[in-house]
Structures are given as C-alpha cells and as structure tokens.
Design the sequence.
C-alpha cells in the first residue's frame, strides 16, 4: 500500500487528509499523480509540489516502493 | 535550553530566544531578528485568526537544513528559528528568526534570507479565519 497525505488547501478540496492506494509493481510518482488528478481535478489543480517519504521530489519519474508515504502539496504559505 | 529550531503550538518568548542565541558565544557582535505577526486585515477583509498546518516530517528537517545553510553561507555564529502551528489570533506572534554573527551585516542579510527561504521551502500552510468564513491562502502554482 502507498499512503498519500494531503494538507491545507489540498486536503480541504480532497475532503480528507489521507488515503491509501494499492501499490502496483513499477508504479512511478507520475502514475500516482495522474490517477488521483483524474479523480480529483479540483484538488490537483493547485498541486505544484510532491514529497516521497519526507523528501521533496522534483523528478516525477521516481519509482514508488510499497509502503511509501507520498504527499501532494500546494505552494507553501507559512511565515 | 530549548532546541534552536522548533515548530510549536504554544507562544514563544523573543527574550528567551535571544538569550539562548547570545549564550552560544561572546564573540557575537551583531544579532538580527525577524518577528512575523498575524495581521488583522488581508485582501480587503478583517482577519480574526490564522490557522497554520504543517507537514512536520518534512517541515522540521527543512528548517534545520535552512539554519545550517544560513550558518555556512553567511558565516553566522548561531541562528534560531521558531514557527507556530495551530490557531493564532490577530496580533499574535507567528514566526521568529534570530541570527548572530561577529558583525551586523551578515546577521542582517542572513535574517532576511532565512524568512524568504522559509516561505518558499517549508511545507506550512495558512488559513485566514474571517467573519465571512475561512479560506486557505493559496499562492498560484
């Protein structure tokens, strides 16, 4: 399983802060994003950053291991 | 002594943070600080409270990394960063940065750099709570 977390405005649009997605062999971050964006376009229209296991990831081709924690994030607004 | 980089729900004391910074070395000749507060007005609306949420697993390490980078980049003697989470009221303290160096210039430059980088790199989101309703602050992607 892959745990997908959402925070702030993305969580509000997803109406949840966490979902579980079945892991598929060979799955890439881009695949997960495409699948979820198709189901939740209103949430993903503000997603501009992603993290895997607590690390900011720019390469969307990165493979996802089983048990990964993925976060799709909007631009930050702290401070 | 408290950790030099913290995310916390409770308020903080600027005096305690500056004292902790000064305790690092008597060679410190310049200390610069930045205090971010909750404004009661934003984009034409009154704001009563602001809520902050963070992806803490990434936010805290990123803040630690920022402090380390600032110390190296500006030759600081020490630096401290505290950011609050949860709900703060208008006028409350949100974020505090203190930088200490042998001279004023690197302390001032590092302080400005740290708050600018924090806003870009640390996964924290703010929600403005107004009489007309709540809304997340969402910079355009």
Sequence:
């Amino acid at each position: 399983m892959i745990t997908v977390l959402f925070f702030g405005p993305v969580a509000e649009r997803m109406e949840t802060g966490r979902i579980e997605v079945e892991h598929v062999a060979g799955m890439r971050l881009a695949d997960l994003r495409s699948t979820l964006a198709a189901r939740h376009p209103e949430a993903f229209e503000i997603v501009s950053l992603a993290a895997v296991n607590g690390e900011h990831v720019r390469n969307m081709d990165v493979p996802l291991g089983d048990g990964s924690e993925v976060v799709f994030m909007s631009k930050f607004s702290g401070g | 002594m408290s950790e030099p980089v913290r995310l916390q729900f409770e308020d903080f004391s600027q005096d305690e943070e500056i004292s902790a910074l000064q305790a690092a070395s008597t060679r410190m000749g310049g200390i610069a600080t930045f205090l971010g507060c909750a404004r009661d007005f934003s984009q034409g609306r009154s704001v009563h409270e602001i809520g902050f949420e963070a992806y803490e697993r990434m936010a805290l390490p990123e803040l630690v990394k920022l402090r380390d980078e600032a110390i190296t980049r500006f030759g600081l003697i020490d630096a401290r960063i505290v950011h609050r989470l949860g709900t703060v009221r208008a006028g409350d303290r949100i974020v505090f940065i203190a930088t200490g160096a042998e001279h004023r210039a690197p302390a001032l430059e590092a302080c400005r750099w740290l708050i600018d980088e924090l806003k870009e790199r640390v996964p924290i989101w703010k929600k403005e709570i107004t009489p007309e309703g709540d809304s997340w602050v969402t910079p355009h992607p």
Q: What stands out?
A: The two ends of chain B are 39 Å apart (CA to CA).
